[in-house]
Specification:
By secondary structure, the protein is of the alpha/beta class. It is about 45% helix and about 15% strand. It has helices at about 20-40, 55-60, 65-85, 100-115, 170-175, 185-195, 225-230, 235, 245-250, 265-275, 310-315, 320-330, 340-370, 390-400, 405-425, 425-430, 435-455, 460-470, 485, 515, and strands at about 5-15, 40-50, 90-95, 115-125, 130-135, 155-160, 180-185, 200, 205, 215, 220-225, 255-260, 285-290, 290-295, 335-340. The longest helix has about 30 residues, at about 340-370. About 45% of the residues are buried. The structure holds 5'-O-[(L-methionyl)-sulphamoyl]adenosine. The site of 5'-O-[(L-methionyl)-sulphamoyl]adenosine has 19 residues, from strand 1, helix 1, helix 7 and strand 12. 5'-O-[(L-methionyl)-sulphamoyl]adenosine binds near residues 12, 22, 25, 258 and 261.
Length: about 525
Amino acid sequence: MTRPFYVTTAIYYANAAPHIGHAYEVIGADVIARFQKLIGKNVFFLTGTDEHGIKVEKTAAKHNMTPKDYVDHISHAFQETWQYLNIDYSRFIRTTDQDHYDVVSRLWNILYDQGDIYKATYTGLYCAGCETFTAPRDLTPDGLCPHHLTKPDPVEEENYFFRLSKYKQQIQDHIQSHPEFILPEFRRNEVLNQLEELEDISVSRSRRSVSWGIPVPNDPEQVIYVWIDALSNYLTGIGWSTDEAQFEQYWPADVHVIGKDILRFHALYWPAMLFAAKLPLPKSILVHGFITVAETKISKSIGNVIAPQDLVQRFELDTVDPVRYYMMASTGFGQDGSYTDEEFKNRINADLANNLGNLLNRTLNMVNKYFNGEVPKADQDAISLLSQETLNHIRELYTQYQFNDAIQQIMDLVDQSNKYINDAEPWALFKEEKLQELANVLYTVLDALRQVAILISPITPTISQRIWEQLGCQNEIQKADFRWIFGLPLPAGQRISLGTPILPRLESEIVGAGKKK
Ligand code: MSP
């Protein structure tokens, strides 16, 4: 039986349209899902939208819409963008889905019945942006929320609380005995430091302050608030209340992919809830950094929000793959990254157009010219440019979510292949009529291209498919198997096809900019 693999993204607040920061996260998760499929795993990939809460309620009112109409609109925008980005998810969950209501109520009842949820009066500072109460010590020296730079509201209310503090020791033990639980490693200490001050958290709000949410079971005056609702999506997605067999198959999650701003909730609140519900903890929480635009926080008020579609249009791309590639190549997962048009253009031109595109075009042209467009037959003297050791290394890098390093290794192989052609001078071999040597050289490069197409397919599935087709392969690259890399060489005699260049250079400063002027 193929082993299961369960990957999730955060669920995105349904109060603003998706931008390249959100895209970065979902592309990362998609690369993980596609790579795990490539190595033969049975993957479930969950993503979706987080649709309740005061922020949504307020934004909907600003747009003169009901909360439901508003979240329908935003959730569709996310789904469309994910489709555009070629995100191959298994389910798009919405916290307004009926089965999610059932899961949240079920989890609430378990916690309440065993005394882990209790009612108390609370006075505190509430940040609507974070949708959570913040401790004064976590604010900036001016008393602002460090994430939203807004003043939190003083709130006094009777709420339900979750006994987070009860699980402090258990969480600490788990983090310390599972080094892979929080990745990358430097994020662990951040969490361990926060553990010291762990207090019980408010998990409901009065219906008077927030009406858009899942009601507390048996208390219509209260609405379940944010984190129990949001985090439990990871259970709903695989059928905790609807499909026990599927749930058993995929839980615990292999990896929750999230941004650094919500680490606390995933590394402290979520484990406590799972301990309380007697469910196993996810294996890893993979924490990525933030994408800025030219070092500036992406923000509507600053006016620098870039949607993934904007990039495709700006550079007149005929596939979204350069966006996927740039995102994964330019910023190591865990680091912060800064987007600029200039860097985008330079990176795509250098890696995809010049290095990979050029290798493909020159190789196919030579095969066309010297061997009538058929894959030549190599003999035992033909070499492989990819070593088993490098292949193992690339696999390891993907498995450890170090996509930029994996890309670097793959691009090194492309580079090496270009150099190999320059050194071997196939045109000279042709002139000298050394046809077997010529066949060996071109075969070697064609097979390296085949390997590159598979190795990079989790990142650039469309470009990989195009290379695949130009090499004359019939099956879909999406169904490729990692074992094909050494196990299924190109058959001699297979017809290649020249087609149009798959990776055109991005020429002007911004392609199309001239037309707009
Ligand atoms: N709804 C909560 C998460 C609940 S998960 C159970 C939330 N939503 S969010 O829309 O604000 O953020 C969703 C994800 O997008 C988070 O992981 C967040 O870190 C990520 N990003 C939002 N802006 C980002 C960038 N500019 N760059 C990279 N990731 C960013 O938090």
